[in-house]
What we know:
mainly beta, three-stranded antiparallel beta sheet, two-stranded antiparallel ribbon, 13 strands, 35% strand, disordered C terminus
Amino acid sequence: MPVPLAPYPTPTAPYTLPDGGQNQLVCSGCRNLLLYPLGATSVCCAVCNAVTAVPSPGTEMTQLVCGGCRTLLMYLRGATSVQCSCCHTINLALEANQVAHVNCGSCHMLLMYQYGARSVKCAVCNFVTSVEAPGNEHKASN
């Protein structure tokens, strides 16, 4: 005679505060994006079980994509460089007023680079564009 199976428990919705306040950070273990309720002091990743500390309230975080392995990195706003925990590449962390733009001389993709650089290599076609030509560069504004 078959044994009846108990029904699966109903999954609970993610905890949110009454005003719906949630924030996000990158897991210190597997680099997945984690959502957590405002006020939490740490978050346990459901994928790798790593516990990631939540920055203190008022700490401004920002993010960039690693130039070595394309992993999303989160860091404290104002940092000048960020080392990737996956591939150990040191990435420049530039503020908007330290960044300039130029169109690639080959494929015309808009490129972003550190203001003051003499050339920039396109990540799409690998063409190296000189940025010293007059009218070829402009400083990003806030």
